[in-house]
């Protein structure tokens, strides 16, 4: 095969060396098959480093409290200020379609328009949780609104009541519901406190509080639920027989470590949050191997979070956390996340580079559009908002001999990068976007001849690493260079396609999890897709156009619903996105005309 013989020797040496050097500087993926990274939703938002910051999801928005700025809500694309109230957010919970907030000893709630005050406890309220149609309240108090209640109480929206005899000393600092059972945790039950109280973690059996297993050896600061088990974090070194450093799991009978081989020096865990993908633990700890302020449990092991959180003086805390969709929100006294300014608020979540997302300048989970003027050499991004309205951003002027031939997350940071090719020489460059900022390109290789071109970039084998599809325009030969996370390329041939067919784009056009190559018959303009199956191509499937004159120019997930949408244009500049769903085209979004002289790049 001519293509293979031309590519194997020069590409394996030149491209392989470049990718190996690049891979050496990349962070290891925290979870097998899924790449996580730091995001910044807060650029330009005034914020403070504070252990008093807190956050929770409420009515589809992320509500964040920070001292000085009060309560603000994020809807996925923009922030808005909520009405001011004389309250901090020591604890928050959603109950009865209202947001409840504990501030010191008082309890207030927000109905979406205004705040209401519900009463005061005799001491600090530290935790809130909705359970069985009531709001559960824990803290350091012996009464609330005049009702006797030792460290824990319940509220039905009108009246407060105790829950059993509560706890005679210490505090209740965390609440959770696991497998339908209410758990409370804190400092109660230590040897210095009254005998008979449960040891740091207790469950409510409907009549009394019972100790959860053998209990824990010191204060518990936080609880979470993951894979049907109760997860506790705090100051303890012992979780029943066997021991566990600062974090442990309870299966309803006994306590065990989540990762028996984990042996990092963790000072304390203040907060835990969990999704189906794993657990984020935040607190105060610093290890030279990347466990700094926060760590991630991927279902098997605790792993570092790409540099963790930090400050310039070396003292940093993650005090609170929550989840918003599949993202983890971390808040506290820190300046950086992953070495990039974060200033007290950071987001950790799965890379959005897959699922048809080709190019995302502002890292909001929606694909953006690249357009280029081949006459002037200007490359421009159309950044789409939640309504798919574009805002233009000029990226770079290059020589007119260079062109964008694909995008892919080459440095595995969740942001799609540009791949460039020079028509006259066949040279290939890659330029990265890091936190939305364009970085100068680096050379990756030179093609043996100008008829050999990069036809596209896509993750062809599901390893979250972009691969290159090459094609010889002189004879229709084509193949894939599979680029492994370690940086070593591997060649995979594909069947030839006649030169009477143009390769239009490569994407998961039918949203089934496999990449497809879309071809156009030159003579008729007919479009068809062929799914890539290893080193073969499946039978062609016709693609229906919106009407006469429309050309398919790109396919990506433009509205972040995990379906690959289709971008069509006309030579007159008209543009529209077909938003796809489970049954095909769900709706159509008309875009402004593509500016004169510009073309959409795939």
Walk me through the structure.
- Helices cover 4% and strands 48% of the residues.
- The chain is mainly beta.
- Strands 47, 48, 49, 50 and 51 form a 5-stranded antiparallel β-sheet that branches.
- The longest helix is centred in the first third of the chain and has 23 residues, at 2-24.
- The radius of gyration is 28 Å and the shape is elongated.
Q: What is the strand and helix layout of this fold?
A:
Elements: H1 2-24, E1 36-39, E2 54-58, E3 61-66, E4 70-74, E5 79-81, E6 91-95, E7 98-103, E8 106-110, E9 115-120, E10 125-131, E11 134-139, E12 143-144, E13 147-148, E14 152-155, E15 160-162, E16 172-178, E17 181-186, E18 201-204, E19 209-211, E20 220-226, E21 229-234, E22 247-250, E23 255-256, E24 268-275, E25 278-286, E26 292-297, E27 302-304, E28 309-310, E29 317-324, E30 327-333, E31 336-337, E32 340-341, E33 345-350, E34 369-373, E35 378-384, E36 390-397, E37 402-408, E38 417-422, E39 427-431, E40 433-434, E41 437-438, E42 442-446, E43 452-458, E44 467-472, E45 478-483, E46 489-494, E47 501-507, E48 516-521, E49 527-533, E50 536-537, E51 541-543, E52 551-556, E53 565-569, E54 575-581, E55 584-591, E56 599-601
Antiparallel strand pairs: 1-33, 2-3, 3-4, 4-5, 6-7, 7-8, 8-9, 10-11, 11-14, 12-13, 14-15, 16-17, 17-18, 18-19, 20-21, 21-22, 22-23, 24-25, 25-26, 26-27, 28-31, 29-30, 30-33, 31-32, 34-35, 34-56, 35-36, 37-38, 38-39, 39-42, 40-41, 43-44, 44-45, 45-46, 47-48, 48-49, 49-50, 49-51, 52-53, 53-54, ...
